[in-house]
Amino acid sequence: MNNTIRTNFSSPSIGRILSKPITSSSSSSSCCSSLTTPRIKFRRRYHSYQHPAPGSPFTKAESAILSASLLHVPSHGFSNAALSFGARDANYLDISVNMLPRGVFDLVHYHLATERLRLGDKIDFRKPENELPEGLRNLSIPAKIRVLCMERLRANAPIIHRWQEAFAVMSLAGNISASMSELAKLSDEIWFLAGDESHDTTWYTRRATLSAVYATTELFMTQDNSKDFEATWAFLDRRLHDVKTIGSSVSNVTSYLDFTVHAFANVLRSKNVPFF
Amino acid sequence: MATRPLSRCVFSAASSKHLRSVVPRVAAFHSTPVGLNSSPPKDDQSSSEPVTHFGFQTVKESLKASKVAEVFSSVASSYDTMNDVMSFGIHRLWKDHFVRSLDPGRRPGGQPMSILDVAGGTGDIAFRMLDHSEKVNSDRETTVLCADINADMLKEGEKRAIQNGYDSNRISFRAENAETLESIPDNSIDLYTISFGIRNVTRIPMALKSAHRVLKPGGVFACLEFSKVSPAPLDAIYQQYSFSVIPLMGQLVAGDRDSYQYLVESIKRFPSQTEFARMIKDAGLVNVGKGYEELTFGVASIWKGVKPLD
Question: Which residues form the COQ9 C-terminal domain (chain A) (predicted)?
Fold first, then answer.
């Protein structure tokens, strides 16, 4: 299955993907507005079938500098130097990087946000089955999640040797909340594109577990030297399997507790203890 | 006290009467009821000239510049001491943060920057800019032009530049009105800064327009100024402090109550963070982020704007 996916979705060219800026205007129409007509005008921070799709948080000028800066990340890393080169490429001055209030973190954030918004353009399991590419038809939900995770992780491949720097920036105290929220949005995006329509507590648990799986896999990928990241995909499979095991053990524990509590209540009732 | 310059002795002898007495006289001329704590009169038409505020007082627009000049001529020599006393030295942290966040100086493969520090007579920001560009970006070519409407403040800055051995090719001082910036060509400045100065400008929108004019496309406007303190209880304490303690300290330390009374009143009159961010936007600059960054619960704020490319 790996091969099919790779042939279907191998990126046309790294440069083109990185240099295509996503602005709020283009992104709003990109992934799902064509499929659902939003009933409510204002935006939500999560995917909803009633609200318009969340757009890019960056202005046009910021996107211009940041998309140009991303091209310098492979050689200069996530650094102020990359930002300066990017500003110059976008015909701005060196001082114009002041437009980015959080500096290098904005560059990391831009990569996270644009790749998240691009994911829906690449794979969208909410389309009818016959519109999906060959290898992606009739998949189970866990298989869809796996495909989407792999596709998103592949977008890190061109800069994976610099991605640890991004982790360092994201883990600074002031940036943690924005990074976590970006991770939450990504796992929401993945579940949404997989066609998840849960509306009970599993909405939260699914997103929480996927966030954990994704973050650990992304960290693993920075250390992966195997050909075509095969070790990473194996790692991802093991984590997803763990989640399944944990999920079933949690539900076993829940039914055990449920049974015990009910049995205890019935014992009390049979002894004529005023219970309820 | 004995070492006070002669000019200021003369001023402060006359000042306490002067500052308070001018206003009723102006008002009497135009027969409009004006007093302390009053907003500008509604029937401006009766007056031949528009009025503006000077602290809580209302004065004719043409008079404000000279009255502000009097205040700053009077505080020029004790400016830093008083800033330290009033803000417990925190103004230094604000200014350091301001300059560090702007990160001036030549980048690898780039050009040296040309920086304009408006209302920077004492050179406070300019010296920090030069230090930062030299120490952080190893740049000895970036230049700073300090423009100030007040010759006394400029003299103070020039004196300090010589004392601290700054390269005279990299720092220059020029008397200039922030509203017009007459001698500065269009599209010539990388970074325009104004620190604790813009609230003293008579027509702030005009100053912002001039900033837009002199900045290169992509150039950055940055303003450090007092703003509104946000949690209400803290604001109450802050108001109490600024209206009772600061004028008193001005009297004790600098021997000049009225100037410091004006300072706190002008701080109170300055627009809020969001209003000023909107003014920056109206002048054609693009706000950075939400438009401002609050320092110390909003006692001061930094506003940044970028001149768009076209």
Answer: 177-247
Q: What's the domain range around B186? A: 69-307
Interface test with A, best of B306, B307, B310 (most A CBs within 10 A): B306
- Interface predicted TM-score (ipTM): 0.72
Distance CA(A175)–CA(A180), nearest Å, equals: 9
The amino acid sitting at A58 is: F
Q: Please check the confidence at residue B300 and state whether its pLDDT lies above 70.
A: yes
Q: What is the pTM of this model?
A: 0.74
Tens-digit pLDDT profile for residues B22-78: 333 333 333 333 334 444 444 444 556 777 878 777 877 777 777 777 777 777 777
Beta-ladder partners of A171:
none
The answer as to whether B8 is a domain residue is no
Same domain, A95 and A129: no
Mutate: best of B97, B99, B103, partner A, most A CBs <10 A: B103
Structural domains of chain A, count: 2
* Same domain membership, residue A216 and residue A94: no
Instruction: Give the residue among A184, A183, A196 at the shortest CA–CA distance from A142.
Output: A196
Do B304 and A88 make contact, defined as CB atoms within 8 angstroms?
Answer: no
- My answer on whether A120 and A207 are in the same domain is yes
B210 is written with which tokens? 């001039």
CATH number, residue A130: 1.10.357
